[in-house]
Amino acid sequence: MSLDMRVNVEPEKAAELVKKEIVEGSITGELIDYYVVHGEDDKRCIVSIYEKHYYRAGNRLTITVVIDNMEDGTRVHSTSGGGGEGLFRFDWGASESFERCVENALENYKL
C-alpha cells in the first residue's frame, strides 16, 4: 500500500505533523530513523521510518515516509509493509490504517 499527495506546508512542518500523529497519537508508534538531504536553494528531502504494533495484524508494521520540495511544492510519499501472516500476508487492513495516519496528519494542508 502506498500514498502520494501534495501539501501546502514546508517539509519540516509536514514531517513534524506526521511524527505527532504516529508517535504521540498511539501507544506503540515509534520513530525508527530520520534522515534529511539538503539540496540547493533551500530544497530538501526528508526520509522517516516508523514502526507500530497492530494487534489485528498480530505484529509490527513499518511505514516509510518521504517528504520533499525538490520540485514544485511539497510532495509526500509513503508506503507501509511488514504486516500479515502466512503465504498471502493478509494483515486485516492494518497497512491501509497505517497509511491513513499520514493522510490524517496532513489533511488540513492537502492540495
How do you describe this structure in short?
With 111 residues, this protein is of the alpha+beta class.
In terms of topology, how is this protein built?
Elements: E1 2-7, H1 11-24, E2 30-38, E3 44-54, E4 59-68, E5 74-81, H2 94-106
Antiparallel strand pairs: 1-5, 2-3, 3-4, 4-5
Helix pairs in contact: 1-2
Could you walk me through the main structural features you see in this protein, from its secondary elements to its overall organization?
This protein has 111 residues and is an alpha+beta fold. The chain is 24% helix and 40% strand. The chain has a five-stranded antiparallel sheet with strand order 1-5-4-3-2, covered by helices on one side. Strand 4 and strand 5 form a beta hairpin. The longest helix is centred in the first third of the chain and has 14 residues, at 11-24. The chain is globular and about 45 Å long.
Output the keywords.
111 residues; alpha+beta; 5-stranded antiparallel β-sheet; globular
| Gyration radius from CA atoms, angstroms | 14 Å
Distance between the termini: 21 Å
Structural class: alpha+beta
Total number of β-strand segments? 5
Number of helical elements: 2
Instruction: Give the helix level as a range of percent.
Output: 10-25%
| Average pLDDT metric | 86
Largest sheet: 5 strands, antiparallel
Unreliable spans are none
Name the overall outline: globular
β-strand percent reads 35-45%
